[in-house]
Design brief:
Largest interface: A-B, 47 and 46 residues
Order of helices and strands of chain A: EEEHEHEEEHEHEHHEHHEEEHHH
Oligomer: homodimer
Shape of chain A: globular
CATH class of chain A: Alpha Beta
CATH superfamily of chain A: Ribokinase
Number of helices of chain A: 11
Strand order of the largest sheet of chain A: 5-4-1-8-9-10-11-12-13
Structural class of chain A: alpha/beta
CATH topology of chain A: UDP-N-acetylmuramoyl-L-alanine:D-glutamate ligase
Distance between the termini of chain A: 46 Å
Number of strands of chain A: 13
Radius of gyration of chain A: 18 Å
Chain lengths: 306, 306
């Protein structure tokens, strides 16, 4: 099987307490795809400018990612400048230049149609909906991410979209804004009532919690002494989560719990270096070893006497 | 075995998004003792005024808590007024009346001397140190809690005390202030370098993380839809943690991990009602059933193929 991802492809410039890095490869589709590529075939849909570097395209291809759905348009690639110096958990946006994203109107060709899993990365809900409709005949599993700008400006469109996906993968603050609930559990229940079978709330350095009708599962974040750059951690989580699920025979309680841990494993690598530096250079062994560390981090004796 | 706890005994008045409750029984020693009483023998050392209600003393006794170390002094019991309406995770203190706490100069008599485990609840470090010195010959395990007021005003005294305990059980924000570190992992490592073998960082609705030289263990908080009153959750955690350890034959990786979960179980009950209302009315069955829910919440398949 394979996953189609639509999202941003960007050049980011970030400042963090550990330093700064200019014009690094980023964007939701990039982090998602690199992360998912360790588990599954990924097809990317997105847009870049003519400034997009060959070495960056080659990096994606070297991960076996199908880049045929990446449109190269006249103009510059989307750029984002963010500052985490004050709070490593919350970037302050210094500047956003949409550039070629202004012209993005993706079409899905026959190659991409083969995908059964779809990730709608953070983007305008109208575009997310268009992709969902184009793909809808073949889909087994669709997950959606979003962010405050869409929650604030296109809420009814977004709510409509949420009704038609299987999973919402979203930051804690954002789901609280979206549902107007201060309690994350109540917020999750409101989302499940809208339609999705699954909601995963990403809680940054506190981990991730998955809710569905029948169970709740909580994964810690891996303790990291030196968080170099948190950019892309959420999309790396989503990539690991969906990449692992795509690899499984079925989506059930067992595989969803494992996927939440794998998502957390992948996010933990991303934050250890600027941009995609660490995420793009992993081995299966690295991933498996960190997975085993999650077992040590969370497993306790189940047979104790009280 | 048994645990000696020294800490505050209070009448609290709280306002939360779920309502308000005046003059409810509280204080670090009370929450700790009630929580630990489900697992172990507890001896309380503290001070109350002549206004302390017989029904509250009876409640403690009905839990098998040894109250002989509670001094009844002329004057009023310590009171605290707190407001969680703005942020359920962080009370705003409206008023604190130390009252009889001003005269507190505890003495440990021969009965209390029998305890091998000691919990130094949040209090002036000078008093905590006095108790530690009085008890030091018999102790197998000592844990300490503190809060911002002591970190800010009595830091060197507090650091001296930390060197002489086995475990520090502390809120995340407070350990960051204490160590001047924004990263909780680095903060934990700094504390371990000072002397304690164990640090547990309480992270409120995000759970608790235990660090020692050889391992890290992370427990989620139990997802609660309606957090009525978070007062005492941290002390209930400490009570469950130490009560369970006191019951165990030895303190090792296995029992420390279980104790962290039991602490989280007990804290999860406390927040469901005002004050000690829920915490004081539990059965072993309630505790065991919630423990099993923590297994469901955290356990995942360890044999997956990546």
């Amino acid at each position: 099987m394979s996953i189609l991802v639509v999202g941003t492809i960007a050049y980011d410039s970030v400042q963090t307490p550990e330093g700064s890095n200019n014009h690094q490869l980023g964007g939701s589709a990039v982090y998602f795809s690199l992360s998912a590529s360790y588990f599954s075939k990924v097809k990317m849909v997105g847009i870049v400018g003519t400034d997009f570097k060959k070495q960056d395209m080659d990096l994606l291809k070297s991960h076996g990612i199908n880049t045929e759905g990446i449109e190269i348009s006249d103009g510059k690639t989307f750029t984002w400048i963010g500052d985490y110096k004050k709070d490593i958990n919350q970037a302050i946006t210094i500047d956003t230049q949409l550039n070629v994203l202004n012209n993005f109107n993706p079409n899905i060709d026959s190659i991409q149609f083969n995908s059964n899993h779809l990730f709608l990365g953070n983007f305008h809900p109208t575009l997310q909906k268009k992709i969902l409709n184009l793909m809808s005949n073949n889909l087994l599993f669709t997950a959606l991410d979003t962010m405050n700008i869409w929650i604030e400006n296109t809420k009814s469109e977004l709510n409509q979209l949420i009704k038609n996906v299987d999973a919402l993968i979203i930051n804690e603050n954002e789901v609280k804004t979206l549902t107007n609930e201060k309690n994350y559990y109540k917020a999750a229940m409101k989302i499940l009532k809208l339609g999705p079978k699954i909601i995963v709330i990403k809680r940054g350095e506190y981990g991730a919690t998955l809710f569905n009708e029948n169970f709740i599962f909580s994964a810690p974040a891996f303790p990291i002494k030196r968080v170099v750059d948190p950019t892309g951690a959420g999309d790396s989580f989503a990539g690991g989560f969906m990449g692992y699920l795509d690899k499984c025979q079925e989506i059930n309680e067992k595989t969803l719990k494992s996927a939440t841990i794998i998502g957390s494993v992948m996010a933990s690598f991303t934050v250890e270096q600027f941009g995609t530096k660490k995420l793009s250079l992993l081995s299966k062994k690295d991933i498996y070893e960190r997975f085993k560390k999650f077992i040590d981090l969370t497993k306790f004796n189940e047979n104790l006497k009280i």
